[in-house]
Model the fold of this input.
Amino acid sequence: MDATPAPDAAPGASSSAGAAAAEALAAGVATLSVEDRFAILRGIGEECIQEDELMRLLQNKPVPICYDGFEPSGRMHIAQGIVKTINVNKMIKAGCKVKIWIADWFAQLNNKMGGDLKKIQTVGRYMIEIWKATGMNLDGVEFLWSSEEINKRANEYWPLVMDIARKNNVKRITRCCTIMGRSDQEELTAAQIFYPCMQCADIFFLKADICQLGMDQRKVNMLAREYCDDIKRKNKPIILSHHMLPGFKEGQEKMSKSDPTSAIFMEDDEAQVNVKIKQAFCPPKIVEGNPCLEYIKYIVFPWFGKFEVVRKESNGGNKTFANMDELIADYESGALHPADVKPALAKSINEILQPVRDHFNNNSEAKVLVNTVKVHSPPKL
Done:
């Protein structure tokens, strides 16, 4: 497959600049207490299994390894692009090394991009370009292609996969198939049944101390902890599961690329973002199940540390919210209206995405990648 640009630095950066950045990063971590580092990591997860294990890990291991991964399966939405950047940067700030597993073989097993590995790998390179543009701290990140790494150490990987498969029945493995976006009631291919055994093996293959994935991946991470019981392994991988952003339509618990109107894509232009947010479900005074408020909580506040609303004096005048609790209080009382929220949210999201647009407009290689991915991933009607 095509070589991936070195993930340690932005294009054109010198190795000395990368070394200096890494040194600065280490110095920053050294100023944090174990309690500070724990708070940063715990803040990523909607759920942590287990907190006491996470604290012990930080006390005993100077640079824990965090595992994250993705299937290159088409255009990237904002949860993959921005939320992942926020979470990865927090992990690095807390002193972790982050291994991002580019699961190209897994996408092929799951029949993404028609099972065409060349197309899948093009999508993988496009995704890396996006993270460069968003400001992901690549000094603490190692991108690993599953097809390359598994082939390098096949004698280590496949016996591990087979052992996990031997120690679990089909019913237990099938329950994990929701990690692929598949129902356990679907008729699955043999490859898709094999997939959870491989993803479970990845955790040990990459020597991960922490699994930092979405709540939708929880089942296979639990399978890894159960496997530790089977093999009498004391140190289990810690599961740090982040919240899943909903789609923009009522009742959509998870953002989906299959419905382009319900998700913001990383290269969406300003007008597209404005239209999608304008049409989003955002009931007055209702916080629960309100996707616009979730975007503010999980993207805008972590990115900017505030949320700015611009409105006429007759509607209450401009206001800057310093935290989500303050915003919720105004929203539930009716002092903050959806007509105030939506334009302010669109403005914030467009500001976050502008560097990505600029990168894909100004970098010729990146432009070819995004145009190729769009051809491979036409919008579904």
Notes: The first helix runs from residue 15 to 30.
